[in-house]
């Protein structure tokens, strides 16, 4: 399996540093980190299963699945967290 294929299956990580009431995302399986580091909580894997929403047990962010969004998109914008970008700083 090539590097591009591995990148395609990476689990997206989302954060809610702005304190939005809810965040729409384009996936049903993801990691919630709470706020951006260093104010993050333990990175927890969440799986909506057949449901359309889930609440993070750490930060209480309500995540809602929106099939119109791609895996890395959020509404409101800016809630995707990229560990690779954070490490490059």
Can you characterise this structure?
With 89 residues, the chain is α/β, with parallel strands linked by helices. The protein has one domain: Sandwich (HSP40/DNAj peptide-binding domain), CATH 2.60.260. Helix content is 13%, strand content 31%. The protein has two helices and eight strands. Strands 4-3-1-8 form a four-stranded mixed beta sheet. The protein has a four-stranded mixed beta sheet with strand order 5-6-2-7, with no helix packed on it. A hairpin with a 6-residue loop joins strand 5 and strand 6. The longest helix is centred in the first third of the chain and has 6 residues. The protein is globular. The N terminus is likely disordered.
Rg, Å, rounded: 13 Å
Number of domains: 1
Q: Strand count, sense and closure of the main sheet?
A: 4 strands, mixed
**Helix amount:** 10-25%
């Amino acid at each position: 399996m090539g590097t591009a294929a591995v990148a395609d299956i990476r689990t997206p990580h989302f954060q809610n540093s702005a304190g939005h009431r809810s965040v729409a995302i384009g996936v049903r399986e993801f990691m919630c980190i709470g706020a951006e580091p260093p104010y993050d909580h333990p990175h927890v894997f969440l799986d909506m299963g057949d449901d359309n929403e889930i609440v993070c047990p750490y930060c209480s962010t309500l995540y809602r699945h929106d099939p119109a969004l791609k895996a890395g998109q959020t509404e409101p914008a800016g809630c995707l967290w990229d560990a690779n970008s954070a490490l490059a700083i």
